[in-house]
């Protein structure tokens, strides 16, 4: 059978696939593991912030600033990692990124100051930026032309599943084992080492064409003619990931206010449920037209913000849970729709940069709005701050849905 084995040639990058052979399907799944492993780290600190706040002492505003440095690192990484990956290959970007993620684990495990947390989050953001560009493109490369939908699904689900597994794993380990802020990151470092081993053996080839001309550090973009696909993806993905970022940064504070609990398992469990919804909904809608997926994602984010406002104004716990689940579904569908549109239309030699462009469009508001909400909550209270955040994001998600509907019939759906 064609997919039972991979014909390979030996090179400096290790095993590389013969251009005429297809990688077995299990390699497509394994290629997504580094994405999962790094995204476990991306949110592993979420349930632990209450411990650091207690031991170090800092406000909600400072907490969102720590989170924002993750966005700073991520956006800075996206300015270069997509272009580097398309020109030099996936492994030269992924391996340093994974090494930096392991370094972030060591800093987290020994952090005793806000500055250390900021550095660890910055390193984490840089690693994540490389993963969402080069890592997701590597999944598509391994999958090949005939499995682009599978590649988009697995790359997207790997991201959101890891993002949810991180806080849940951290919550459980920190509540049940000693030295919580150390144990969590020792376990995560072990996961990252397995991801490094997977990348070393991953059947991806270096680019055969000479490096394209142009700046190596630049705002990522897409080839001429792919702008509409990128716009549709950002229109829905950006509000969705901003909603989940709010839950990650201020969710534990909302739980403490509504439930009177600082349980790290509860906080991690809510984040895990949110991203489990993001994972499950993508498998559920994968065969629908991409514009339908995007429209549903925008609607889900709007409903999430309605539920959030209801929760903070009425202290109704089911509404907060519904808000988290709907936020996860909104991000999941926006992400899947956006990645699928890019996978189906962007040539492989520009795909990592296109993925980076999608994530820049999503993470800019995901960094700015939760930070603003955090400082606003310090000034006017968590209830009013969360309400205003919900109203603003609801407007953005509604606008995104309108963009998708207005673009119906003008964007090619192929692949």
What does the model show?
The longest helix has 33 residues, at 227-259. A hairpin with a 2-residue loop joins β1 and β2 (14-17). Helix content is 77%, strand content 2%. With 415 residues, it is an all-alpha fold. α4 (60-88) runs antiparallel to α5 (91-109). Residues 1-20 have low confidence and may be disordered. The protein has helices at 25-31, 33-44, 49-56, 60-88, 91-109, 114-143, 148-176, 180-201, 227-259, 264-285, 290-314, 317-345, 351-380, 382-406, and strands spanning 8-11, 14-17. The protein has a single domain, classed as MFS general substrate transporter like domains (Growth Hormone, Chain: A), CATH 1.20.1250. The protein contains 14 helices and 2 strands, in the order ββαααααααααααααα. Strands 1-2 form a two-stranded antiparallel ribbon.
Index terms:
415 residues, mainly alpha, Growth Hormone, Chain: A, two-stranded antiparallel sheet, 2% strand, globular, cell membrane, transmembrane transporter activity, transmembrane
- The H-level CATH homologous superfamily, spelled out, is MFS general substrate transporter like domains
CATH topology: Growth Hormone, Chain: A
What number of structural domains do the residues give? Answer: 1
Highest-level CATH class: Mainly Alpha
Rg (C-alpha, Å): 20 Å
Instruction: Provide the structure class.
Output: mainly alpha
Number of helices: 14
Arrangement of strands in the largest sheet: 1-2
N-to-C terminal Cα separation, in Å?
Answer: 23 Å
Q: Biggest sheet, in brief?
A: 2 strands, antiparallel
CATH architecture: Up-down Bundle
- Please write the string of helix (H) and strand (E) elements: EEHHHHHHHHHHHHHH
Portion in strands: under 5%
Q: How many beta strands in the DSSP annotation?
A: 2
- Overall, the morphology is globular
Rounded mean pLDDT score: 84
The parts where pLDDT drops under 50 for at least 5 residues are 1-20
